[in-house]
Structure formats: C-alpha cells, structure tokens
C-alpha cells in the first residue's frame, strides 16, 4: 500500500520520443486519482519527463500534448536522416509547441511544485529548478532539460545567464531515492510505474543516472526509439501502455477512486430504507462488498480496453495521414526511388539552405554565443597546457630520480663477502680456511720465479760482462730449496743464480 499519511512526490524519467508514455500515465493519474496529483508536494521531470511534468502541473490538456508528440515524430520521420537531418530543428519545434500548449499562468502553478532537472555545462553538476518568473522562463527550462549535445546542436541554451544541457545526463530520475516518490519510466525495470516484460527472465539491469533499465529485447527496442521516433501507431500503443501501467499501480496500492452508483441494478441489490429494517448489519455489508467488487471489475475492464475519449480522439486524429496531392505523388515508389538516388546531390543543398536559415535566426544571440565559445576555448587551451606541463614535469622528475638511483648504485661499495675479497682461484668454491692458505702459498711460489727472472734480466742489461767472484771472499752458503727444478738463494753481487 502506498503511504498517504506522509507527503509524496512524482518523478518522470527522461526518455526522448518515448514521452508519449508519460502522457498516458499523466492522463490516468488525472482521471482516476486526481488527489494524487493535486496533493503531491513536488512533481519532477528530466528531458521529455520535464515536458510531461510541466503539462501535468499546469493543467494542460493531455490529448493535445499527446497529439503534439505524434506530430513532432511525424515531422522528424519525413526526412532521410530523421531528427538528425539539418532541416529539422528540434529546439525550435519544442519551443513553439510549449508556448501553444501551456496556459498563460503556467509558471505560477509550476513555481514551488515543479522541479526540472538540468545539467550545468561548467561543472556537469545537476541542478533542480523550481522557481520561474514567467512562461518564457518555464519554456526555456524545459528546452534546456531536453537539449542533448550534438543531437540538438553545438551551443547549449542559457537559463538565467547559465548554460545548461539535458538533465538526464546527470540525473534522469530526480529524487528517486526517496521512498515516497512515485517513479515513472517507459523502460522496464524497478520504477513504480513502468512496462513489465514478463516474457523475459533476465534479472540483470543497467543503472543509467538513477534510471533502472532491465536487459531485455523490448528495452533495447525502446532505447533505439528514444532518439529516433517510431511509427505513429506504435506511439499510440505506447500511450495506451502507459495508461494501463498507471492503472495497475493505482489498483495494487488501493488508490483507485470510482464513483459508486447510488442504486446498483440487480435482484436484491436495492438497499432502500424499507429493506434496511429487515436485514441485519452483517448481511448488508456483505452485499455492499459484492456489489462494489462487481462494479469495480466492470469499470476496470472497460478502462483497460479503452483510453479516455478525449485522449483517444486526439491520438487517432494525430495518427491520421493528411496527404495533399504533392505528398501523394512523392510517396509513390518511383518518386521515392528517384529521391533516394539523388540524396548525394540534394542533401548538401538542403543542408546549405538549413544552415543559412539557422544563421539568420542566430544573429540576435551571436555576440553572447561567440563570447561563450571564446571563453570555453581559452579554458580548454589552459587545461591542455596545464596537463601537458604536469605530465612533462612528472616525466622529467621520474627520469632524474632514475639517474640518481643508477649513479648511486654504481658508486656504492660491494657487499662484504669472501668471494669478493679473494680471487676466484683462491676461493675455489671451498669454504675451508686451510685450503685457502694452501692456495695462497702455491700462488706465491709460482710468482717468485717470475720476479727473479725479471731481476736477472735487469742486471744483465746494465752490466757489460759477466760478474767475477773474488777469491778472497768465500762464497756464501746457498740455501737450496728445490721446487720444480728451481734453486733459490739470496741475491748478491757474487751469487749467481743457477737453474738446473
């Protein structure tokens, strides 16, 4: 059961050309539960949801709103590229329709109750606008909320001197996190009022800026039709689907308000004053419950089968094709084939004409828009330069620190170990100290003969002849130590070196 003892809100999700679904939901709420709309504290909307919320708050005719949605879709479908064709100006079309549909005092009714979701261009933050000083300001807020960058143009519109774009970019379902907010979305998911794709058992979903979108083929089709409008008959079916889903929500929450007939027809159904004396209280309540249930079921079935007459007539009239003689001729197969072949030649011409018209319409705002473009260009260049300087400084500091570490590693002493202090032939892979001393002794023995030979060569090079020993000087004793044919003795002037 929906809690009516506390204030509640209503929130419409952004959905592009699927806004016709919101028209069906709003029409159902107006007719079957008007207290739910009248007593709502706030009614929020983003993008196409903002248009539906504005119409609901201001009391606009939902039949005209639905017919206008279909007219815009038909106008976009006439062109080869649809709404992307240069000759289709969605912003201008929306502004004209809103001025025609909204009553003169719409801004007074909307102030304080209507909340339009906008995305600020400077920082990308979401802004909820709730105060409007005129109908022009209300229309401009709706245009800003539905302005998709590149899709609608390159220069965002302004509201009160600030540039805004589509509110669905930052918050597509405003205030969805509040428990007392009735969320409405044309995508199957977890919203309170939304289509139920019972044929799919996929439990995965996508959260797009607070909007729940279940992974189903039907939702995939809806997403593609949000930017490229479907056939008018399909849009009429979507409107009817929105009416049914809203009625289902009212039913399961006990919010339906039917006018109970004062004198229901049927045998034993007349509860006059004469019969009230003969029937006890319990039987009377039982019969009243049965009659109310029967009337409830009959009225509900009738509502599910048909839209409200006014809305139904408006949608049927909008779906009807009004073709002139020229349009009938252009719809013939040979003419359509010829126009398709000539698209490479006609499209540039149409684009040039459309751009010329837009430039003429842009002249009053040229100075303001050019100044904004200049400021944004300067900010972009400053951002690029700052990032480039920051990246270069980071690379230079990283390279400098790497070179310092490399120089420190090259100049640092090696770690203390036996293998580094002694040559490899001394260490020899053995950890015994005795083996090391034996190898050192052997090394000295191999080194000494080389030194003696070097001394002998030097002495021979400086003397002119062989050295003579005096007879009076007795020869010194020679200490013999044989090692591989070498006889060693002390070096002296009269001691020869003999080699065996």
From TrEMBL:
**A GO biological-process term:** lipid homeostasis
Reading the lineage from the top rank, the first entry is Eukaryota
Enumerate the GO terms in the molecular function aspect.
triacylglycerol lipase activity
Annotated PNPLA domain residues: 10-179
Q: Where is this motif: DGA/G?
A: 166-168
**Which is a Pfam family this sequence falls into?**
Patatin
Q: Which key words are in the record? A: Hydrolase, Lipid degradation, Lipid metabolism
Q: Motif location (GXGXXG)?
A: 14-19
| Top EC category | hydrolase
GO cellular-component terms in the record?
cytoplasm; lipid droplet; membrane
EC number, UniProt record: 3.1.1.3
> What name appears for this protein in its UniProt entry?
triacylglycerol lipase
State the active site. 47, 166
PROSITE patterns from the entry? PNPLA (PS51635)
Q: What is the residue range of the motif GXSXG?
A: 45-49
* Region Disordered: start-end pairs: 264-289, 480-500
User: From which source organism is this entry?
Assistant: Astyanax mexicanus (Blind cave fish)
Report biased composition (Acidic residues) as residue ranges: 272-282
């Amino acid at each position: 059961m929906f809690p009516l003892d506390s204030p509640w809100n209503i929130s419409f999700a952004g959905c592009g050309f699927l806004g016709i679904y919101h028209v069906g939901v709003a029409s159902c709420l107006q007719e079957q539960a008007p207290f739910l709309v009248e007593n709502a504290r706030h009614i929020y909307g983003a993008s196409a949801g903002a248009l539906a919320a504005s119409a609901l708050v201001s009391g606009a005719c939902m039949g005209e709103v639905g017919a206008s949605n279909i007219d815009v879709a038909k106008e976009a479908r006439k062109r080869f590229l649809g709404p992307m064709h240069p000759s289709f100006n969605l912003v201008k079309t929306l502004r004209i329709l809103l001025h025609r549909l909204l009553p003169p005092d719409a801004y007074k009714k909307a102030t304080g109750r209507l909340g339009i979701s906008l995305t600020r261009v400077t920082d990308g933050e979401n802004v909820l606008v709730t105060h409007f000083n005129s109908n022009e300001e209300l229309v401009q807020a709706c245009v800003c909320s539905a302005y998709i960058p590149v899709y609608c143009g390159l220069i965002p519109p302004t509201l009160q001197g600030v540039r805004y774009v589509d509110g669905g970019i930052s918050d597509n379902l405003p205030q969805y996190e509040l428990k007392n907010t009735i969320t409405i979305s044309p995508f199957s998911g977890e919203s309170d009022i939304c289509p139920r794709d019972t044929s799919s058992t996929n439990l995965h979903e996508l959260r797009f800026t607070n909007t729940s979108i279940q992974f189903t083929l039907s939702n995939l089709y809806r997403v593609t039709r949000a930017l490229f409008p479907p056939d008018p008959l399909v849009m009429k079916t979507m409107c009817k689907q929105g009416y049914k889903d809203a009625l289902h929500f009212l039913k399961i929450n006990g919010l339906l308000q039917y006018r109970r007939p004062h004198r229901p027809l049927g045998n034993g159904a007349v509860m006059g004053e004469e019969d009230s004396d003969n029937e006890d209280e319990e039987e009377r309540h039982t019969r009243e419950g049965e009659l109310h249930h029967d009337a409830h079921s009959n009225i509900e079935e009738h509502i599910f089968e048909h839209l409200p007459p006014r809305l139904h007539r408006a949608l049927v009239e909008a779906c009807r094709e009004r073709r002139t003689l020229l349009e009938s001729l252009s719809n013939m197969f040979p003419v359509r084939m010829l126009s398709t072949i000539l698209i490479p030649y006609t499209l540039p011409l149409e684009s040039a004409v459309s751009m010329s018209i837009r430039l003429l319409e842009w002249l009053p705002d040229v100075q303001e828009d050019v100044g904004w473009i200049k400021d944004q260009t300067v900010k972009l260049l400053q951002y690029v330069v700052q990032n480039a300087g920051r990246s270069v400084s980071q690379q230079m500091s990283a390279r400098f620190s790497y070179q310092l570490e490399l120089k420190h590693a090259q100049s640092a002493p090696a770690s203390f170990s036996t293998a580094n202090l002694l040559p490899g032939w001394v260490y020899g892979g053995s950890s015994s100290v005795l083996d090391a001393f034996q190898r050192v002794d052997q090394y000295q023995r191999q080194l000494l003969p080389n030194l003696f030979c070097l001394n002998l060569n030097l002495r021979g090079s400086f003397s002119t002849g062989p050295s003579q020993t005096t007879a009076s000087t007795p020869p010194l004793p020679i200490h013999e130590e044989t090692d591989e044919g070498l006889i060693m003795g002390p070096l002296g002037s009269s001691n020869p070196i003999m080699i065996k």
